[in-house]
Amino acid sequence: MENKEKKYTKLETFRYERKFKPSALSYHQTRNVVLSSAAFFRNIFKPRYVNNIYLDTPELNSFHDNVGGKSDRKKYRIRWYGEKTGKISDAIFEIKIKNAYRGTKLSFFLPDFEINENISTSYFRELFRSSDIPQVVFDEIAGLEIKLMNRYRREYFRDLSGNFRLTIDSEIEYYKLGEIHNRFNDSFTDSEIVVEIKYDEEHNESAAGVINTMPFYMTRNSKYVDGIAAFYEVSL
């Protein structure tokens, strides 16, 4: 567990998450804008692939809370890095807690598991039982079902001050998940680029000065909402 702790930072406070979709720009153009910013953003990690499995109620309450603009809401996901399928190590179950533009999250490391066509809601419930997830949290998520999987390439940057982290997401793929036979055939690829800037509450006053060094317009964006809207009969 000690080594895993070093690979992942658990949030202790709320932070701001600002999202942008530079739709008119390619990935390389977006990256050049970031590197040319007067905030002096530079790479801090090698790019890697991020994979998520999202859980929601049968009625898609998390989805509707987001679309409806509910200020206080939660999102539940399993996250890992690297390959999409096969044996998965160092995965994390996260509860993302949002309050308007501010967010934090609870994180729990999971035992190794396999991603293949046999995954199901019951499969992950058993996985949760074998983890260190507290009973009160397990009770909270007991009625959730797996609904969606996505995968994207993420590149990481930090500004000169060290207070603002920026990511560029590309190659975004979505997969609908059901209770059985998840062969990942029901899928689509999103060509959009998503830029996100994250920073602690204490730096909110100086955030505009950093954000305005780039010609991006802030937008509400949720990959979970985009994926659910593509596969389910829902209203946005």
Which secondary structure elements does this structure contain, and how are they paired or packed?
Layout: H1 2-7, E1 15-20, H2 27-36, E2 42-43, E3 48-56, H3 61-67, E4 72-81, E5 86-88, E6 92-99, E7 102-109, E8 113-115, H4 121-129, H5 135-141, E9 145-158, E10 165-176, E11 187-190, E12 194-200, H6 204-211, H7 223-231
Antiparallel strand pairs: 1-7, 1-12, 2-9, 3-4, 3-9, 4-6, 5-8, 6-7, 9-10, 10-11, 10-12
Describe the structure in your own words.
- The protein has one domain: Beta Barrel (Hypothetical Protein Pfu-838710-001), CATH 2.40.320.
- It is α+β, with helices and mostly antiparallel strands and 236 residues long.
- The longest helix is centred in the N-terminal third of the chain and has 10 residues, at 27-36.
- The protein contains 7 helices and 12 strands.
- It has helices at 2-7, 27-36, 61-67, 121-129, 135-141, 204-211, 223-231; strands at residues 15-20, 42-43, 48-56, 72-81, 86-88, 92-99, 102-109, 113-115, 145-158, 165-176, 187-190, 194-200.
- The protein starts with a helix and ends in a 5-residue tail after the last helix.
- The protein is 24% helix and 36% strand.
- The strands form 2 sheets. It has an 8-stranded antiparallel beta barrel, surrounded by 4 helices.
Short structural summary:
The chain has 236 residues and is α+β, with helices and mostly antiparallel strands. Helices cover 24% and strands 36% of the residues.
